[in-house]
Specification:
The protein is mainly alpha-helical. It has one domain (about 10-75). Helix content is about 50%, strand content about 0%. The chain has helices at about 10-25, 30-35, 45-50, 65-75.
């Protein structure tokens, strides 16, 4: 895992995330134990209250990434899923 140190934009994103984390933990040291699961299933949204898919590469089973890959697969293979109400 590289954390994107060589990429300036990713580096800025990680530093911003670290600042948010420091602020949250300063305000409530038990935040990690008290946080509720996010609706999207994203760990970053759950812990930090933000979605930053542009530099997140920590979770191989990211539900947002999986949905994006699924939608790309459907589009590439001309598959249409019809929902019956």
């Amino acid at each position: 895992m590289s954390w994107g140190v060589e990429d300036e934009e990713r580096r800025k994103g990680v530093l911003a995330l670290m600042e948010i984390s420091e602020k949250i933990m300063r305000e409530n040291p038990n935040h990690v134990n008290e946080v509720r699961k996010s609706e999207s299933g994203c760990w970053m949204e759950q812990i930090y209250g933000i979605l930053r898919c542009d530099f997140c590469d920590l979770s191989v089973d990211c539900p947002i990434r999986e949905e994006q890959m699924w939608q790309e697969y459907l589009k590439a293979n001309n598959i249409v899923i019809e929902k019956n109400s």
